[in-house]
Amino acid sequence: MIDPVECCRRLKLHGCTYFSGVPCSYFASLLQALDLDPGMRYVEAANEGSALATAAGVALAGGRPVVVLQNSGLGNLVNPLTSLSAVFDLPALLLVSWRGCPDEPADEPQHRIMGAATPRLLRLLQVPYWLAPPDTEKFNDVLEAAVQTMLRSQRPVALLFRRGTFSPVEPAGVPPAVGGFTRRDAVAVITRKLTDRDALVATTGMISRELFRQRDRPANFYMQGSMGHAGAIGLGLALKSPGRRVVVVDGDGAAIMHLGSLSVIGSTMPPNLVHIILDNAVYESTGGQRTSAARTDFSAVGRACGYRQAHQCSDAAALAAVLDGAAHSAGPTLIHVKITPDSGTKPARVATELLPREVKERFRKALREDIEA
What we know:
The chain is elongated and about 60 Å long. A 6-stranded parallel β-sheet has the order 2-1-3-4-6-5, with helices on both faces. A 6-stranded parallel β-sheet has the order 8-7-9-10-14-13, with helices on both faces. Strands 11-12 form a two-stranded antiparallel ribbon. By secondary structure, the protein is of the alpha/beta class. It folds into 2 domains: 4-161, Thiamin diphosphate (ThDP)-binding fold, Pyr/PP domains (Rossmann fold); 183-372, Rossmann fold (3-Layer(aba) Sandwich), CATH 3.40.50.970. Helices cover 43% and strands 17% of the residues. The protein starts with a helix and ends with a helix. Strand 3, helix 4 and strand 4 (92-97) form a beta-alpha-beta unit. Residues 214-337 form the Thiamine pyrophosphate enzyme TPP-binding domain.
């Protein structure tokens, strides 16, 4: 395995001290090592395209930037990669986790297509890439080759990382908060307030898994992948089903990834949409890395974007009262729920019991049967 602390030291020797990205669990120990190194600066990007744009700014100022991303985020990266970095010859070192690698045991369903396509996609985009070996000394040689190629070409290059490439880092500093109002508590309130006619969209990750654990129902659409698009899916549902309340349960990291959707929802003003953002200020699914939500007031953003109702709450009683009010008020309604990270047992993945197509088919059937009834 690669020692993440040694990896950081080597990157620093190459002049790579500015990082931006969106975390993946494959990089949990590397990101922890970056956080512990005062000589490194890591910017929590809204999405992978924004991370590369931040890297472009660092490169314009003469730096040697690094972008950290999961391969599923290559889709968000394509536009700035082809129309910014490649056009202006702006170098960047891309550290890409290879989820869904065909040579490894099956990953989650959303990684299958991109896992198989990742090497071909990088070649198509004319991005030289190397597979990172799970050995610190061998990795140093590969890193040297990648950095030298980046400097000669003044273009982005990529390193691909398989599962288990990095060794763990010993935890340091203050342990995560325990107790308080958690995701589990918030979901319990939300599920208690759902009616049989409500259609629910749950963002990918722990929120879908928690809803599946607490109250699985055919009218729940559990996202698996496509991070950041729960609000837009809910908007489409609300517009096509004006007689039905649509409840979107989002996360802070996911909402930030495509925050522009809030403006579209506010502009379109579907009266039957309730958009709940559970905000623990971390990416809990990938190891608890910080999001940029600590200084973001989603309720204020919702009001500025045109939501008819916008609220903030941080306990069960307040959330229940806001949901009761939303049931009798025209939307769109945004509810910003401040929660603490949940250190309890992780819920099972939805895919362990339901394939994505089964989620879709039973959701459609639930909507159709309700209309026919």
